[in-house]
From TrEMBL:
Pfam families assigned to the protein according to its UniProt record, in alphabetical order: AP_endonuc_2 (PF01261)
Organism, as annotated: Streptomyces laurentii
Protein name per UniProt: IolE protein
Stored Gene3D superfamilies: Divalent-metal-dependent TIM barrel enzymes
Annotated ranges, domain Xylose isomerase-like TIM barrel: 39-302
InterPro entries in UniProt: IolE/XylAMocC-like, Xyl_isomerase-like_sf, Xyl_isomerase-like_TIM-brl
Top-level taxon: Bacteria
Residue spans crossing the bilayer: none
């Protein structure tokens, strides 16, 4: 009698997608698909988890949004906010207004996370320089200290965990800056949303980061960059928005980083993680996202998630 084969343990990675993958960057924009179409198509493509996207794009009445998501078999993993906490206490009150409306909706929808993106040092459309791209020591202290405060208050008031998202054209971008931020913040208050595309855009190695700071990885955004387009936009100092319009973010598995080793490293952590597909495509033709979303979901299944 032979021993039965041990079944493969189920993945602890929950895959979803976001309005960003449908070209949605703003609460209201004529070049974006209507929210009903996004919900229909993200469910049709095989995803069961979504992010809320820019506040006001999806219905902000929890009862309406709960009905619209439930009958499509969708659940919410996170909301997203932009912050400029390196500017210090003077920005706290207006930052909290933005945070609170997003966190309240996420909480009402049963989400677990709030994705926090630092503000841009240059305008993401015009390229106009808004401030120095390098933080002073004092600004680093403001950024880390106020981010820890944000983590505590969001957890205490809304039961959500903040996950800070390194992003191109922000002060939290390269391996040097990301590791400096992690080393200076308390793991009890601050986790990381590792966006594989943005980290590659800024020269980072996602697998190395997961292997080195695994206990700080609280959330994933799955994204790839086209290395040829990336080389052009870096050489030309193109801001992030026009770089996206050039196609710097591409459909997997055509770009970098390879997602198979990233997902393997994430699975090795043996923790529950969301892995949300985010292929920046603003602006894009309305019929373009759905076939990409279907192909991407099939690809991720082939990676074991």
């Amino acid at each position: 009698m032979t021993n039965p084969t041990n079944p493969t343990p189920p993945s602890r990675i929950r895959v979803g997608s976001a309005p960003d993958s449908w070209g949605v960057w703003f609460p209201d924009d004529p070049r974006q698909v209507p929210w009903q179409r996004f919900l229909d198509e993200v469910a049709g493509a095989g995803y069961r988890w979504i992010e809320l996207g820019p506040y006001g794009y999806l219905p902000t009445d929890p009862a309406v949004l709960a009905e619209e998501t439930a009958h499509r078999g969708l659940r919410v993993s996170a909301a997203t906010v932009f912050t400029g906490l390196h500017h210090g206490p003077d920005v706290w009150d207006r930052t909290w207004v933005h945070v609170a409306e997003n966190a309240a909706l996420a909480q009402a929808m049963g989400a677990e996370h709030l994705v926090v993106i630092p503000s841009f040092w240059r305008d993401d459309k015009t390229g106009a320089v808004l401030e120095d791209r390098t933080l002073t020591a004092a600004q680093w202290r403001q950024l880390t200290g106020l981010t820890e405060r944000l983590g505590r208050e969001v957890r205490e008031r809304y039961g959500l965990r903040i996950v800070v998202h390194p992003h191109a054209d922000t002060h939290l971008d390269s391996e040097e800056n990301v590791t400096r931020f992690l080393d200076a913040t308390d793991s009890r208050d601050v986790s990381l949303c590792l966006d594989t595309g943005h980290y590659a855009y800024c020269g980072g190695d996602s697998v190395k980061l997961i292997e080195t700071y695994g206990e700080r990885i609280g959330y994933l955004h799955l994204k790839q960059v086209d290395p040829e387009v990336l080389a052009e936009v870096v050489a030309d100092e193109v801001p992030f928005g026009p770089a996206v319009a050039r196609g710097v973010m591409c459909e997997p598995p055509a770009g970098v980083p390879a997602l198979e080793p990233v997902l393997a490293a994430a699975r090795a952590l043996d923790v529950d993680l969301f892995a949300i597909v985010e292929q920046d495509m603003y602006p894009c033709e309305p019929d373009r996202p759905y076939p990409i979303a279907e192909r991407t979901r099939r690809f991720l299944r082939s990676c074991g998630v």
